[in-house]
Amino acid sequence: MVMALVAMLAIAASMGIRRVRKSDLRADTTKVAQSLRTAYAMSAQSGKHHRVVFDLENRTYQVEVCEGNIKLHKERREQREHDVDQTKVEQAMKFLQGDPNAGAGGLTSEFMPEIQQSMSPEEAAEKAQALAGVRLGMGRCKPPTKMRGGKEVPDPRGKVRTLIKENKFEKIWVQHLEDPVEKQGFVSINFFPLGYAEKAVVEIVNDGDDQYTLLVHGITGRVEFRDGEWRKPEDHMMRDAEGKRVEER
Questions:
Q1: Residue 228 lies in a domain
Q2: Which of 2, 89, 137, 167 is 20–30 Å from 79 (CA)?
Q3: Which residue blocks in the chain are alpha helix, DSSP H?
Q4: What domain range includes position 157?
Q5: Which residues of the chain have pLDDT under 70?
Q6: Residues of 194-225 as b/e, b for ≥16 C-beta within 10 angstroms?
Q7: Are 238 and 206 in contact (CB under 8 A)?
Q8: CATH number, domain containing residue 56
């Protein structure tokens, strides 16, 4: 009887821990969904491109606002502003300063006149980075700010947020990447001024193999909350606004 009682208590404790862990996972997933909805609302209200950037290795996510010309096209990996090829930039700057041995820093000759027309070294360096393929378009994305007392201050909606230790991003699918991002690396989900979003699937798991899945719908920006694994994330990514698969259109 004692052994049976001990076993029953152990099972009850295990089930209680499992429920707590899944509750924490649900809370974290709800917060991620709220950030996605916030980015959509901010984009629709301000008329500016917004995005949520995920760092899978560090389990963080953050809302950003994008200024300027941001172009998305199909890539194998996410391009980040800080992924600067300094060699190309330095060579391009030497070329601008008249060094005949510098070359164009890996830039094609058709882009060099645009850099040479820069009004300052800082502008030239920015263009060199962008044209060297460091950035998609000439825009920049950064945490949002707002005016308070006549001063520009950080908007709390752009705060870096972190999943609790037991939770992590498993996989994230987005339309502008060919493959899902898994376990480490950066990826962004984009929200556009006209009130639509980039379709995406976000999987969040814990150490106990529990999982929640978020589906971001493109035409409305709606964030759908699913308990468990979404068996065919590619199916969501391949459907248009009318629910038809791309290959059926």
A1: yes
A2: 167
A3: 2-46, 86-96, 112-116, 121-131, 233-237
A4: 22-78+140-248
A5: 2-20, 69, 71, 73, 79-139, 239-249
A6: eebbbbbbbbbbbeeebbbbbbbbbeebebee
A7: no
A8: 3.55.40.10
Secondary structure of the chain: what % helix, strand, coil (to 5)? 35, 30, 35
Cα distance between residue 21 and residue 2, in whole Å: 29
Which residue in the block uniquely carries the two structure tokens 């600067």?
A: 84
Run of H or E including 161: strand 161-162
Residue 148 β-bridge partners: 151
Say what angle helices 86-96 and 121-131 make with each other, to 10 degrees. Answer: 130
CB 62 within 8 A of CB 155: no
| Burial of residue 88 (number of CB atoms within 10 Å: 0-12, 13-18, 19+) | buried
Residue 200 lies in a domain: yes
List, in sequence order, the alpha helices (H) in 1-62: 2-46
pTM above the 0.85 mark? Answer: no
DSSP 75: B
Tell me the two tokens of residue 214: 């978020």
Place of tokens 């971001």: 216
